[in-house]
Specification:
This protein is of the alpha/beta class. The chain has 7 helices and 10 strands.
Length: 248
Amino acid sequence: MGTSEFNIKPYGDTMNDGVVQLSFTLPLQLDELACEAARALGEKLGLTDVTVTCSRDLGKGFSFFILYGKMMASIDISKLTVTKAEFETMKKEDVERYIKENFDRKLNFLGACIESDAHTVGIDAIMNMKGYNGHKGLESYHEICAFNLGAQVNSDQFVAKALELKADALLVSQIVTQKNVHLANLTRLADILEAEGMRDRIILVVGGPRISHELAKELGYDAGFGPNTYAEDVASFIVQEMKRRGMR
């Protein structure tokens, strides 16, 4: 592959035409001035051929806009690095077989949305029997005892339940991230586990729309999972990490 092929731009109708879609809300009543402000803002961001393709009145002096425009910037992907969890994603039946072959018992996975987070869509997709998008959740795994505690679970209570159920892994979901509240929530949980002397005995993973593996590691977690993650991804990582650490 030639060096020039590493430099890419967004694709609209033609390769590397740089066309992007941008959406935002302005604190303006919807009228001609607001539309022009939205268009001008797109130009100040460096876009050319800016068009306001959608505008909606949100009421109380707010308006929503969708813009189309072309960007001049490109990115050299050969200079990028990505931090990700190193594991092999296995199918559900392969995870079951792996547990039977490497552990002499069923494994206990405990999941929850902690602290103020009341959005269970993420943890439900991973934990609940029906799962999501054709991928069965951990409750359907015969070799895993999956306990979904739901939403707004206090971290102290979460750790206490982990002790009671002898959890091998804690699965934390953080959907609400306004003002970076998820960082404080996740840090508090990790600190409690350390204080209780439990951190080395539990696989700690977190998932959410603004979660990356790099962020998770910085916060003291074993792995972080973002969008497009399914139960088999999480289960595969946990069981392989348990074996790597010699957990039985």
